[in-house]
Amino acid sequence: MKRIGLLILWGMWLCGAIHAQLPCHVVLLGDSNTFIGGDACDKPQGWNKWFKDFAKPKSCRSYARSGATWTHTPNTVLDMEENIGVLGDNNVVYNQAMRLLTAVLSGEQPTPDLILIMAGTNDLWFADKRPDCLKLRASDIYKYPVTTISNYKPSELTQLSQCVCYDCELLKEAFPKARIILITPPQNNKTDLNDQHDVGTHIQCCAEVLGLDCIRLDKAYDVFYGPDMIRAGYSKDGVHTTVKGARVLGRYIYEQVQKLLQQ
Q: Which of 63, 111, 172, 228 is deepest in the core (most CB within 10 A)?
C-alpha cells in the first residue's frame, strides 16, 4: 500500500510538472499558423494563444509573419519593415530574427529565455518559388566548419538546411542563454506527406547539428493528421487552424516543450 501511495503521489507530481507555469520570457518565430495568433499571442485561431494560456510565461511575443519561409532567395536582404502576408524575397525567418534582436536592443522586448520556431510549410507548398530548398541533403549540412556559416550573406544561402542553421546560429550568438526549440510544420493536405516528412527531417538534422531540440509535428499522427484536418474541424482549408485545431496544437506543443525543459 505504501508503494502504491508513493506511485500515486509521483503521478500527481508528474502531472503537475507537465502542466506547470513556464517562468520565462518566450518569443515565437514562424509563418501564418503562428501569425494568426497575433503578435501578442491573444487570437484564438493561432496555436500560440493557447500555448500562452497553458504555459503562463512571464511574457510571450510572436514575430511570425504570414507567408514566411525558412529559405532565402538570391534577392534576400535585411528588411525589418516589410509585412506583405505572402511569399517574398524578404519574408523569411531571418528578418524575424533581426526584428527580435532589434527589439531587445531597444528595450522593447525582454531578452528571451525560450525561442520557438515553427516554419517550413511555405517552403514546400510553393516549391516552384524555392527550387533550391531541398537540394542540400540534411546529412551534408556542414561540409564546411559550423562557425563559418554566419559569415555568409542571406542571399548566398538558398537551401533549407543552410538557412535553418544560419538563422539559428545568429540567434545563438545574440542570445547565448536562450533555449531554442525548432518545431517542424504540422501536417497539411496541400502537399505530399512524404515531402512533409522530408522537410521535417531536414529541420531535425539541423537541430541535431546545432545541439538544439526539435518537435516533429509532421509525425504527430495522433494530434494533427493532415488528410482529416478539415473533417475533424481542425482546419478551414487544410493548412491553417480553426480555433479548435489551434487549441489542440497549442496544448500539444506546450506539453512537448515542458517535457524537453524537464530533461
A: 63
Pull the grid cell for residue 169: 546560429
Taking only the tens place, the pLDDT of each residue in 162-204 is 899 999 999 999 999 999 999 999 999 999 999 999 999 999 9
Cα–Cα dist 27/101, whole Å? 11
Q: Which one, of 124, 257, 245, lies nearest residue 195 by Cα?
A: 124
d(CA 31, CA 56): 22
Q: Which residues pair with 60 in a beta bridge?
A: 26
List the grid coordinates of 74. Answer: 538570391
CB atoms within 10 A of CB 222: 7
Q: Would you say the pTM of this structure is higher than 0.85?
A: yes
